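Write out this protein's structure.
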Amino acid sequence: MNTQHFSAAGRTIVRSLTLLFLVLTGLTLASGWAQAQDSPDATDVTGTMIQEAGSPISEIEVTAHEEESLFPLPAPAISADRQGSSADCTDFRTDRLDISPDGRYVVYRVYNVFADIVPALYSFSTADGSATKLGGASESDYFRFTISPDSQYVVFFNWEDGLRSVPIGGGAPFKLSSVGSDVKISPDSNWVVYKDLGYLYIVPITGGTSLQLLTVKDHDVEYTISPDSKYLVYRTDKISQNKDELYSVLIGGDAATKLSGELPTGGWRVSADSAHVVYSVVSISNDETHYRAALYSVPITGGTSVLLNGPLVTDGTIQHYEISSDSTHVVYFADQDTDEVNELYSVPITGGTSVLLNGPLVTGGAIYDYEVSSDSTLVVYFADQDTDEVNELYSVPIAGGTPIKLNALLPPNSHVIDRNWTVYDDPFYISKDSRYVVYLAAQTQDHIVELYSVPITGGLPIRLNGTLAANGDVSHFKISVDSQSVVYTADQDVYEQVELYSVPIGGGSAVKLNAPLSTDEDVSLVDDDYLGSVLPFDISADNMHVVYVTKQPSPAQSSYRYNKLYSVNITGDAIPKLLNANQSQNEVYDFAFTPNGGHIIYGSPDGTFSLPIAGGVPAQLVLKCTLFLPLIAH
């Protein structure tokens, strides 16, 4: 059986370990609020952190979203009398930065390592380049914040000021509570939920009277907010004689409703329509050598819980599950019928007979990965279904049917490549419009990796890359948000010189995007000491631009670094623009798009800058005289 696999849960573990390494190496990354011992939102049935399906909850925990969108930056401009000499440059630091969802503001915290300047919170306007102080003057070095989903407010906490909110563009703060931990903002940005001494409270984001939601004291209570911002779902063991149970409560409304029986361990997710809660019940053997998980669904308003999975064989268990975006089905991954043979199943979220989605597996075969299409009609999965250790792609209707093999017939010893698995990659991607699957495979000759797209319902796979140089390969790719283009890197023209290309997703001529490169320069990954491999390109949210960095050997020749930052039209019909031409030191630490795709934020030895994606004069966010920590971007 092929073991080169990272399931959705496995990739989450990789991300979590990456962040753990950052923390262990001294980079404080906003891993939580007060009472850092509080549990994560939810866990999947293997104990791995998961995000709630369809729930864009803003929270101050290190989640997959934050891994992609928060990154440390240097301090804002400080008056000359407080800057100190050049020898003091490393005194000023930040340990948290986030970009507002609308892309108009960058919010970050600054502090002085010798406490000469107390922690302060700033917002930077990407529109006019101004920085505004939002909060500070606390003698405490503990300071956490999050931005509301509507980009209007920043909620922050420190020991002296307590929990407050402030308009993101500046203004008088609103006091929410004297204390607060495990803070979350509701998806509609109207409410702030927090813990205080083991009790759960909710308060309007603009201040007011806090309402107690949990009437028993439980420091370990875990909770989520429903996507419609109407309900709080939480787990506690303090109501029914130390038995973990699941409850829901209407925000600002009635008493809590019990949703489940005892949950020894396990997690839950709220459906995107906020109508159902899907949860797992995990039982662990007395000798702690085996666990067994079962999957249930219950209306969020309360009622009878329905067992979703079919009967499990001895030692069989649910490994992972997803709720479809239309909230009608639950797709799960389990050794339900044969012990230690994981297969793929689907069941209506309201209950019914579960359906096996994959075809018969050869001896040693297994399902390794799956994804539900955005329109919730199909499931694409990755498996050695027909030939052991030959991984291939299949699609099947979510309600069950005959699976269709998506890739073409493979030559001996070849398979769909599960190597596009860095922190930011999966073995395949489904386009947002649910029409295509894009993947890498050695499909025409052994060991030559090329890029293909195929209709999700099946059909002839189309090779997207151009003719490769001898022994060349396609290395990485991304699909544009509008599902029209695929951008990829490959040593297509010159062996071992990786360049950047764009091609229509349905096939056509690939266009080179990068500017001419020197002989020792390319557009391949740099293995960062802290973050691992980081993709050297990204596509703007408006689907019009690609920003990329080129890599060259460092002056010491002992490693590589990114040195030039470019923007180019995704169609390749214009000359790439060098964005960091005015920097005195030719190095780019990392870069990130604002969520609206209008600006690029990048760091360099000269400081951190904001620049319109179409080009222009960079606006310096912060002093050069600061310690710059690696960005976590893309």
